[in-house]
């Protein structure tokens, strides 16, 4: 079975209604309604899509090389959200944790409490910069961010405060 065409796939999302979205480097979003058997171009054409998430209410958010975009209607229409644009959008990580959405890059971390409509910077206390990149995860009551080189920061208050916790990480 051949995969979707249109450039390297950088992110995948299976939505709550079973559709699959693939974010590509050259062709925006592709969507499959049949478990990946067939794919169609579905928005954000000519954009590099590095991440896509579904919020608790079903809105879709996509991190692109031109900023973060939001779709309230399952990917039919997309709107650019300037307040979510992290300073460097080459490799942005998106994550949903409870009622919050996070976007992280090498330069900052932002958080939304309203399905991506507005965002606030929650980077205070993190060592970020030009030589770093970020990835995020969550478990139980914690949000974790990993920044290169070898720094892990957990937060138990949705990013209001971060604590360096890298004991045992390789140098």
Can you offer a commentary on this structure?
The model has no long low-confidence stretch (mean pLDDT 81). This protein has strands at residues 9-14, 20-24, 29-32, 40-41, 49-54, 60-64, 67-71, 79-80, 93-97, 100-104, 109-112, 120-121, 134-139, 142-147, 151-155. Strands 1-2-3-4 form a 4-stranded antiparallel sheet, with no helix packed on it. A 4-stranded antiparallel sheet has the order 5-6-7-8, with no helix packed on it. A 4-stranded antiparallel sheet has the order 9-10-11-12, with no helix packed on it. It is mainly β and 171 residues long. It has no helices and 15 strands. β6 and β7 (67-71) form a beta hairpin.
Distance between the termini: 41 Å
Instruction: Name the strands of the widest sheet in spatial order.
Output: 1-2-3-4
Tertiary shape: globular
Number of strands: 15
Biggest β-sheet description: 4 strands, antiparallel
> Helix- and strand-based class?
mainly beta
Q: Which bin fits the share of residues in helices?
A: under 10%
SS field, number of helical segments: 0
Q: List unreliable stretches of 5+ residues.
A: none
String of helices and strands: EEEEEEEEEEEEEEE
Measured on Cα atoms, how large is the radius of gyration?
16 Å
């Amino acid at each position: 079975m051949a995969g979707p065409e249109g450039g390297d796939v950088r992110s995948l999302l299976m939505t709550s209604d079973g559709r699959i979205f693939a974010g590509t480097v050259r062709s925006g979003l592709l969507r499959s309604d049949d478990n990946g058997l067939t794919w169609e171009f579905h928005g954000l054409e000519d954009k590099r899509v590095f991440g896509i998430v579904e919020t608790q209410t079903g809105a879709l958010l996509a991190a692109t090389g031109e900023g973060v975009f939001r779709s309230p209607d399952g990917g039919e229409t997309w709107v650019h959200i300037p307040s979510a644009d992290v300073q460097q959008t080459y490799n942005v990580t998106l994550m949903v944790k409870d009622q919050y959405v996070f976007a992280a890059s090498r330069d900052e971390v932002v958080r939304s409490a309203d399905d991506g409509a507005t965002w606030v910077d929650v980077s205070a206390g993190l060592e970020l910069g030009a030589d770093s990149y970020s990835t995020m995860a969550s478990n139980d009551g914690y949000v974790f961010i990993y920044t290169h080189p070898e720094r892990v920061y957990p937060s138990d208050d949705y990013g209001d405060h971060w604590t360096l916790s890298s004991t045992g990480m390789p140098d």
